């Protein structure tokens, strides 16, 4: 099959089917409470999951609760989250975020987002310092089961290599394009996100995609293009 002859819509359907078979379909369950998800996602920027978790729990152990984190001394908080990359940038982002939530809501909680329409919830979250579309959509999908598509580096790379997204699409635009092609069902969106994340971490890695082992290779533009030049480059 010539992968280039398939439309993006056909590719996304096939990608879902193949990855559902490879990784099994997942239930959408809350893994962490909303404030945990929000602050952990801010901590996770360019940081491994293990180091992000270490920083999160050290921070709460040292300062007790969100009020304690919000009012902590800069150096002390930076030290608590030093297992993450750029702790000096993350301290003001986290503290300003906590201040803004407290000021606007009277408490440090974002549970109210479950009752907001999707666009309003995205607008509200992306006004917080350090919160972009990816973080906002992760919180809204994982915690409130809203029909959004978090596009992280893995979702973006795999979708682009397969040919679901064009070469010049930005990550923010990718959110919109993928949403238009997928049904507005949070379980489907969750599976697409998690399956592409796992696939990008394990098989379709940035530097050395293991195309020979990949269940998507029959529909993948990147594989077909590289294979035409010589199969060794894609193995
Ligand atoms: S065939 Fe290769 S480039 Fe395409 S999705 Fe699989 S690992 Fe990635």
Task: Describe the protein in words.
The protein has 235 residues and is an all-alpha fold. It has 2 domains: 110 residues, Endonuclease Iii, domain 2 (Orthogonal Bundle); 111 residues, Hypothetical protein, domain 2 (Endonuclease III, domain 1), CATH 1.10.340. The mean pLDDT is 93. Bound molecules: iron/sulfur cluster. The site of iron/sulfur cluster has 14 residues, from α9 and α12.
Features:
235 residues, mainly alpha, Endonuclease Iii, domain 2, Endonuclease III, domain 1, 2 domains, 60% helix, binds iron/sulfur cluster
Q: What ligand species are in this complex?
A: iron/sulfur cluster
Q: The CATH topology of the largest domain, please?
A: Endonuclease III, domain 1
Structural shape: elongated
What number of domains?
2
In short:
This protein has 235 residues and is an all-alpha fold.
Question: Strands, helices and their partners?
Answer:
Layout: H1 8-23, H2 34-43, H3 49-63, H4 66-70, H5 74-80, H6 87-105, H7 118-126, H8 133-144, H9 153-162, H10 171-181, H11 186-202, H12 221-229
Helix pairs in contact: 1-11, 2-3, 2-8, 5-6, 7-8, 9-11
Bound molecules: iron/sulfur cluster.
């Amino acid at each position: 099959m010539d992968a280039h002859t398939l439309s993006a819509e056909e590719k996304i359907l096939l990608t879902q089917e193949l990855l559902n078979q490879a990784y099994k379909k997942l239930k959408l369950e809350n893994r962490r409470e909303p404030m945990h998800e929000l602050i952990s996602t801010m901590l996770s920027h360019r940081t491994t999951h293990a180091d992000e978790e270490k920083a999160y729990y050290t921070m709460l152990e040292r300062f007790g609760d969100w009020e304690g984190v919000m009012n902590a001394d800069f150096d002390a908080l930076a030290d608590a989250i030093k297992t993450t990359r750029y702790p000096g940038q993350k301290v003001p982002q986290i503290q300003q975020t906590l201040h803004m939530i407290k000021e606007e809501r009277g408490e440090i909680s974002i549970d109210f987002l479950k009752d907001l329409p999707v666009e309003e919830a995205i607008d509200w979250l992306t006004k917080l310092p350090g919160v972009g579309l990816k973080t906002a959509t992760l919180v809204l999908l994982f915690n409130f089961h809203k029909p959004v598509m978090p596009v992280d580096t893995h979702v973006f790379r795999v979708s682009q290599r397969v040919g679901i997204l064009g070469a010049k699409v930005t990550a923010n635009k990718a959110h919109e394009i993928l949403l238009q092609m997928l049904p507005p069902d949070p379980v489907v969106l969750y599976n697409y996100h998690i399956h592409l994340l796992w696939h990008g971490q394990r098989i379709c890695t940035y530097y050395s995609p293991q195309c020979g082992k990949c269940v998507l290779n029959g529909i993948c533009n990147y594989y077909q293009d590289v294979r035409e030049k010589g199969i060794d480059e894609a193995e």
